[in-house]
Design a protein that fits this description.
Number of strands: 23
Strand content: 15-25%
Bound molecules: nicotinamide-adenine-dinucleotide
Radius of gyration: 23 Å
Strand order of the largest sheet: 15-18-19-14-13-20-21
Helix content: 40-55%
């Protein structure tokens, strides 16, 4: 399969390409992905720039029809596309299918939102004057996405961008061209005018800066790592461009003495290790009070060691491989650093399976303190650490003692502590008796502190980013 770039309604000839490798079986090449240079990116920017006014003038019905078409097809093909996703990214088949379904639901949600585009009419403070507040598209938006949710993240950026009348250039992560291509292929048949959606695959470091700096691109929505995000924010600041960043996490899961142990273990297992821990919302710091600590660590380690790690496409596998060799080496080196700094490590070794891939046993590092590197830096793999604390007050202080602020969880049966935690956890999303990862598609997603910058994604809050506001005064 050749994944080609899609620009101005045409699939472009590929001049340079890279293989798309299955992380569960490196002998399985899914296809070859086009690697755009700046010339193809410039074509995409021009095409989007030309198409933007037409789409900005489209009716709510036209927008609904496009978004509903895409949502319906994603839902109808979730088994097939979920398989592609699992083969390409390495999450298990049920996780892959679930992600495609979620992408479909996101398109359906924004199809509905297109019919509810609204403004405000207010009375003026001056007599006889009318005030209207209306929302406008911003024009061409550049969407830069990571590899770990290869269809859901492009969906949660493209769907609102189109819903609110913008033209799009998608620059997906290099490791997951197949999902991006499949999504754009559906969009190419959705009735959208040429140039409204464009796909430009290529090296982020080569074409990313030009996308960010082009005067024709009015806003950048980025999800990825902190260093890349900071660079993009600086460039957008220089060009006075609207920017939205969703970046890393070091999400705490607090477990209090009064927690239901089974719920706490289940939530931590899911939050830390599902999707191979490759979630920005993963529960990577387990902050546990001393009365439940031993029982919790023992029960979680037992469940973790029983997880079936293997080929993402195999029945019954609960944790797929790491996405690539580089990420696997990074995970192993963090486990090593944690052990050297005094952590007690269970699991965390490289594994061999029938097919050659990037397999690793999930790792639990207990006896850590919050200043250790394992607790300050994002690993982005199936590695969780445990920090023992005295009581709720210390747990909250440790949970908040991080430069990140994406998601935070607490397992407790105390309404008082749950309520206090919801109000005082320094995070954009707070979970009570639930994993830190796993969110709804119709409500805002995003964090505080070093995890996020700019307005929230998803739900109706997405309008803040994908529109600008005009206030009009009339003396009739
Ligand atoms: P990354 O920063 O390496 O890459 C993200 C995207 O940026 C890719 O498409 C890449 O090609 C592009 N890019 C790279 N250099 C660029 C540049 N100079 N200019 C413009 N674009 C450039 O991140 P990744 O490794 O793909 O993803 C993993 C990271 O994403 C983790 O840190 C994870 O926490 C984060 N993440 C965050 C969220 C969230 O919503 N907060 C969700 C998923 C992943």
């Amino acid at each position: 399969m050749d994944y080609r770039n899609f620009v101005g309604g045409q699939w472009l000839e590929t001049t340079d390409s890279t293989p798309n490798v299955n992380p569960s079986d490196i002998s399985d090449i899914l296809g070859y992905a086009a690697k755009a240079g700046v010339d193809q990116l410039d074509q995409a920017i021009d095409a989007a720039h030309q198409a933007a006014p037409g789409w900005a003038a489209s009716t709510p019905q036209q927008r609904f029809d496009v978004l509903d078409f895409v949502g319906s097809e994603l839902l109808a093909r979730k088994a097939e596309l979920g398989r592609l996703l699992s083969r390409e990214e390495g999450k298990t088949l049920p996780e892959g299918i679930g992600e495609v379904a979620r992408a479909g639901q996101i398109f359906k949600f924004f199809a509905g939102e297109a019919l509810r585009l609204a403004g405000d009419r207010l009375a003026s403070v001056r007599p006889g004057i009318e005030v209207d507040v209306t929302r406008f598209p911003i024009g061409v938006v550049g969407l830069i996405t990571p590899w770990n949710f290869p269809i859901a993240i492009p969906a949660w950026k493209i769907a609102p961008a189109l819903c609110y009348g913008n033209a799009v250039i998608l620059k997906p992560a290099e490791l997951v061209p197949g999902c991006a291509h499949a999504l754009i292929e559906i969009l190419s048949r959705s009735g959208l005018p040429e140039g409204v959606v464009n796909l430009v695959m290529g090296r982020g470091s080569q074409i990313g800066p030009r996308l960010v700096e082009s005067a024709k691109v009015k806003a950048i929505s980025f999800t990825g790592s902190v260093p890349t995000g900071r660079g993009i924010a600086a460039a957008c600041g220089q060009h006075l461009k609207k920017v939205q960043l969703e970046m890393g996490g070091k999400n705490p899961m607090v477990v209090l003495d009064d927690a239901d142990l089974a719920i706490a273990v289940e939530a931590s297992l899911n939050g830390a290790f599902f999707s191979t821990g490759q979630r920005c919302t993963a529960s990577s710091r387990l902050v546990v009070t001393e009365g439940i600590h031993e029982r919790f660590v023992e029960a979680l380690a037992e469940r973790m060691q029983a997880l079936k790690v293997g080929n993402a496409l195999e029945d019954g596998v609960q944790m797929g491989p790491v996405v690539d060799e580089r990420q696997l080496q990074q995970n192993l080196s963090y486990v090593d650093i944690a052990a050297k700094q005094g952590g007690k490590v269970q699991g965390g070794e490289r594994l061999n399976r029938d097919t050659e891939g990037f397999y690793m046993a999930p790792a639990l590092v207990s006896e850590t303190d919050n200043a250790m590197r394992i607790n300050t830096e994002e690993v982005f793999g199936p590695v969780a650490s445990v920090i023992r604390v005295k009581d709720y007050e210390e747990a909250l202080a440790v949970a908040n003692d991080t430069e990140f602020g994406l998601s935070a969880g607490i397992c407790t049966t105390s309404l008082k502590h749950a309520s206090h935690f919801k109000a005082n956890a320094e995070a954009g999303m707070v979970m009570v008796n639930l994993p830190t990862a796993g969110v709804d598609y119709h409500v805002p997603f995003g964090g505080t502190k070093g995890s996020s910058f700019g307005s929230r994604e998803q739900g109706r809050y997405a309008a803040e980013f994908y529109t600008s506001v005009k206030t009009a005064y009339t003396l009739p």
